[in-house]
Amino acid sequence: MRSINSTTANTTQSASSPFSVMSTNFQSSSLVTQRLDWESLRKQARQLENETDSKLVAFSKLCSNYSTSVITSGKTPSSNTSSDLLFITLSNEIEDLLSKLNAINTKMSECLSAEGGMNSNATVHTLQRHRDILRDYSHEYEKTKRTITSYKEREQLLSLSSNQRETGLSNRRMDGSSNNGSTSLFMKEYDHLKNSHSLIDQQIEMAEMTKENLQSQSKSLRMLQQKMNTIAQKFPMINNLVQKIKLKKRKDSLILARMSNGLGTSNPSKDYDVLFKIVLIGDSAVGKTSLLQRFAEQHFSDTHITTIGVDFKLRTIQVGNVRVKLQVWDTAGQEKFRVITKTYYRNAAGIIVAYDVTNGESFANTKRWIEEVKNNCGDDGVPMVLVGNKCDCTDKVVSLQDQEEYAKLMKLKFFEASAKENINVDEVFIELTRLILERQERVNKDTSRKDNEKLDLRESNKTNKKSKDKCC
């Protein structure tokens, strides 16, 4: 009896094993299909986000052009037909892209919520990031659209002729009817324009009076200078005294200029001694915005929107005896914003070239960024440091030895940093500030030395000339 039961059980187990194998294969193939669908949806989402980004940039430029034409030239709506058509076209395209992006996010959410789906922390984080990008894009679009609409409404008010304005206002006052909202808005705009014109006229009159006063003072000073030169030529002792006074004033001005640079001095009227502009550059997605937020605001966020154009933040630090306020500019690393970011190299006191230690291409592109700095800032020795971000990651592809050799080759200092774990972030900015202060002090010393040499040369020439006159 036992043998019969065991035989039956073995038969049942052998019969059910093919079905279990088929079920396992079906589940694995289902997971592979879900993985492929997820990657395809992510790729579509990134493409739509890039297209929406470029459309929003064009939409913002249209808003700027529209506001300029309305405020400065006062064009009527009929003359802005091309701008209105472009506004409608861009609005429809952006709304269509946002709708598609919303549908893609919905499909990604359904892919995660499916039974047996790959509902991991990484995928949930990725989906949340795409949702945040969609929310920010929608907010930016609505804000720009409201701005352009307000300019269009204001333009329609300003397009009314003066005759219609006066006639309409007088009729409403005679009839005793209450003004509606548009009439009230128009009256406020009309009064604002009248006050603006009167203020401009007053400013022009004041500028003309100031110009006349300055011209009369300049004329008086020239006459006084001529009299002083005549007296100095007649009396050599007075001439020597005047030259000594000029020399003393020149040396005092050099001392004051050196003190005004903030080196070793304090300014009680401000919370800093000197202000430096620092530009943060590098490829897209290397963590430039995260480094800036960690340094300026002491926090880190896992979700970021790609920087459009430029942004900057401020922070005051103490380096030695000098209180330095740093104005750090965060630039977009994408190629389409390269024309915008080039203008922000002007008057830069220091440069931070950032790269991602988990991305070898970003490290290789630092050479191109350094060449761009030299082309825009000149070879006058603007201090630069290299920063390898995301050093806390385990999937590093750029070794520490390669970074050290490259920094030695380029004659630059480098740091491995992590905005997420707050590793070497403050040290990067403190070291760059120290290099800027040292360079400024060298420049001031060289300038002071050259000026003193020029003054000494002038004095020696005058002395030689006097001795020759006496000999003759």
From TrEMBL:
GO terms for cellular component: endomembrane system. Keywords: GTP-binding, Membrane, Nucleotide-binding. InterPro entries: P-loop_NTPase (IPR027417), Rab (IPR050227), Small_GTP-bd (IPR005225), Small_GTPase (IPR001806). SUPFAM superfamilies: P-loop containing nucleoside triphosphate hydrolases. Residues 447-462 have a biased composition (Basic and acidic residues). Residues 158-182 have a biased composition (Polar residues). Residues 463-472 have a biased composition (Basic residues). It is found in: Endomembrane system. GO terms for molecular function: GTP binding; GTPase activity. Gene3D superfamilies: P-loop containing nucleotide triphosphate hydrolases. This is Uncharacterized protein. It comes from Brachionus calyciflorus. The lineage of its organism: Eukaryota, Metazoa, Spiralia, Gnathifera, Rotifera.
